[in-house]
Design brief:
With 328 residues, the chain is an alpha/beta fold. Helix content is 41%, strand content 17%. It has a single domain, classed as Rossmann fold (3-Layer(aba) Sandwich), CATH 3.40.50.300. The chain starts with a helix and ends with a helix.
């Protein structure tokens, strides 16, 4: 009954979000980073209603025009310098639907690892790029428009390099030469981690994923879910052959009963399946979804910090809960 009520509340939230987004868009209030931050507070719930995801795609280009970010926060990169030496680790942040926090978690890890990171925004909506101040075209746009590859799709933001794959949510066909072009980029890669913020339709046979996986020494998977898609995500993760996998039950309502029930669900999965190495319960954290591209802002989440440590140490059969996080 509690999950039923939770599901009903998410549907209602999705409808409210669509109405609020329409109001903000048509009234022209989304004009700066502060308004975007407020707008993004509602976006994490959008995956619960496909209509909202469609709406996000339609307004994305207008958001790019309206949101003005400081130029000094990012700059274009013509070539990643380096000889490609050292181990490269690939981290995939994926899930079965939008609005479950995979972009937020991918960005959090990009900064939280405190390493050289190539963040690959492989989401059709490119919302991660937008949050990071990358409002230029994507790699697909460059290849289909005969523009020099990576001249505009590749940018640096603080300590990470951002590769935006899609610039138009209605132009998602990957050109045939994408893999060869990507190989040229990888030859000079000096990053220690590649983090893929995936689209919801990604499969292990995806050519871009396979190319990035081939160049990596180890591959890690973060399977992001909410309580409503937990079972489906658990089965979906079985199809992926990765060195290490974590099941992240995200956006749990921050109420004691809901958190306890979420932990019980993870314990059940833990006892029945053996293809996950870590299990993480993350209550909804408003600060994570009020992100602003400002180097002075430091947002910390203890569960995700423990997740980063577990990944780096490749810990096995590890359960991360708010209780454990509070004791660290």
């Amino acid at each position: 009954m509690r999950l039923y009520n939770l599901g009903r509340s998410f549907v209602i939230t999705g409808i409210i979000e669509l109405i609020l987004a329409a109001i903000y868009y048509t009234s022209g209030l989304i004009q700066g980073a502060n308004e975007l931050s407020y707008f993004s507070y509602f976006l994490p719930y959008s995956g619960y209603f496909n209509t909202v995801n469609t709406f996000k795609g339609v307004i994305k280009d207008e958001l790019f025009k309206k949101v003005k970010l400081k130029d000094q926060l990012y700059k274009p990169v013509n070539k990643i310098k380096g000889g490609g030496e050292g181990d490269i680790k690939l981290i995939l942040s994926t899930g079965l639907k939008g609005g479950i926090g995979k972009t937020t978690i991918a960005i959090y890890l990009s900064f939280g690892l405190k390493k050289k990171v190539l963040y690959v925004d492989y989401d059709y909506t490119s919302f991660g790029s937008l949050l990071l101040g990358h409002n230029d075209i994507g790699l697909v746009d460059e290849l289909t428009s005969n523009i020099k590859p990576f001249s505009r799709s590749l940018k640096e933001f603080q300590n990470i390099t951002v590769l935006k794959v899609f610039g138009d949510p209605f132009n998602i066909k990957i050109p045939e030469n994408a893999n060869s072009v990507l190989s040229e980029l990888i030859k000079g890669l000096s990053q220690e981690f590649i983090i893929i913020d995936s689209n919801v339709n990604l499969t292990p046979n995806d050519e871009i994923f396979k190319r990035l996986d081939e160049v990596s020494d180890e591959s890690f998977g973060l399977f992001i879910t909410d309580p409503l898609t937990l079972n489906a995500t658990t089965k979906f993760a079985m199809n992926w052959k990765l060195s290490w996998k974590a099941l992240v039950l995200n956006m749990i309502p921050p109420l004691p009963d809901e958190i306890n029930e979420a932990i019980n669900l993870l314990e059940k999965v833990r006892s029945q399946f053996d293809h996950f190495d870590a299990f993480v319960a993350v209550p909804f954290d408003e600060k994570l979804y009020n992100y602003k591209p400002d180097p002075k802002i430091n947002v910390s989440n203890k569960q995700l910090d423990l997740l980063i440590n577990a990944l780096l140490e490749k810990r096995r059969d590890y359960l991360i809960t708010p209780l454990e996080a509070s004791m660290r």
